[in-house]
User: Fold this.
Amino acid sequence: MTTTSTAIPAEPSLAWPHFWMKTVSKILKHLALSGLGMLFLFPFAWLVLTSFKTPGEIMMMPPPLFPKEWQWSNYIRVVEEVEFFRYMGNTLTLFAAKAVGAVLSCSLAAYGFSRLNWPGRDTVFVLVLATMMLPFQVTMIPLYITWTRLDLIGTYYPLVVPSWLGYAFSIFLLRQFFRTIPTELSEVARIDGCSEFRVFWQIILPLAKPALITVVLYEFVWTWSDFLGPLLYINDMERWTLSLGLLQFRSDKETFWELLMAASTLTTLPAVVLYFFGQKTFIEGIATTGFK
Assistant:
């Protein structure tokens, strides 16, 4: 007697359909993000490409996307006529002085608000944050009168000194980061005989490098793009920053669009390059301060 066994068909695996759906979903998300990124990148790309064009190509209708002949001489003319390197040196000098002051003052204030217990600490911190609601235009006239009476108009002191007194935003950012550092580290250091300043200098600051670099990057962007402050306080062309130099060049070369685009590209490029190389540290500093 022979018995015939019928094979039971295996159920179709759901792994492959799920894998393909997940892959297609990822591809669509990346395509959507890439398209959005290209949309935001297009104005900067148009700026750079226009800086290499001739006046005739800029006035063509419709204007070509890429130049027929790349005019590198536009950048040479800008560097020669704008005194670009002098203004860049002034801006970098101003940034260095402000960055050092911001890191020292804001880190000390943030340490006091996050790691020390003293009466009225939270109330004072709320008052510090409240200063962020005051735009510069509100305090501009009283500050100008103050610096005039101190006979410091025409120098960098009105721009540098406020950085050594702390920024509310940077204090808040560093405070949030300091609160993520375990308090046990400070307690062990105090037991070993460390003073409060030594705990701050040798333990907290080395662990807060991402947040400190983030403060420096913010300071660079603020200094590099600041126009109203230098316009208000600096009246000597030898001390002008890039923003003032670009304004003067724009008024002198109003119809030379290729030169204006080249000057704008040279002014914008350092901030873009700095963020490109420091974006990992910048994102890390922001993500660990309670903003994510």
In short: The chain has a mean pLDDT of 83.
